[in-house]
Amino acid sequence: MSHYCDLAPGHPFHGPYHDHEYGFPVANDEALFERLALEINQAGLSWLTVLKKRAAFREAFEGFAIDRVAGYGEAERARLLADASIIRNRLKVDAVIHNAKVLQALRDDHGSLRAWLDHHHPLPHAEWVRLFKHTFRFTGPEITGEFLMSTGYLPGAHRDGCPVQARILDAGPRWDRVRVS
């Protein structure tokens, strides 16, 4: 079975993501929001498709500024659904807008999305899925797991022999601080 660590290095899109982002802790709420939005948009598609459209997503969603996206109404929704440079799926677009509003509430209650994640860490994968399904829109087991793995909350982004894994461990991912089942 091939692992992302075997396939990504040297690839023009997968390589930089694998080497510099995937599995590293993420502190910034806009970066966490972007990662969640990208994972949502990947559902049913290849990760390569999402990575190729990433710059367009950033532009379309105004840098994933949470307050701006949370304020989107019908005009912005229509603009997004007409934008051929991103994935034009109404459920996914609606989920990203809805989740921005949820992030505002989490920020009000916990200070940041990261603080909310830290508050609930550690949880086993199944508990994370229940929490995400209860909190966010369009977040099933795969999306939740990939989001948490990609942002350093769950292990498994890289195989142990991958040279990036050592850098991730140096960065102090949450999963390495307290082991979960």
UniProtKB/TrEMBL annotation:
Pfam hit, one: Adenine_glyco
Gene3D superfamilies linked: Hypothetical protein, domain 2
Classification via PANTHER family: DNA-3-METHYLADENINE GLYCOSYLASE 1 (PTHR30037), DNA-3-METHYLADENINE GLYCOSYLASE I (PTHR30037:SF4)
Protein name in UniProt: DNA-3-methyladenine glycosylase I
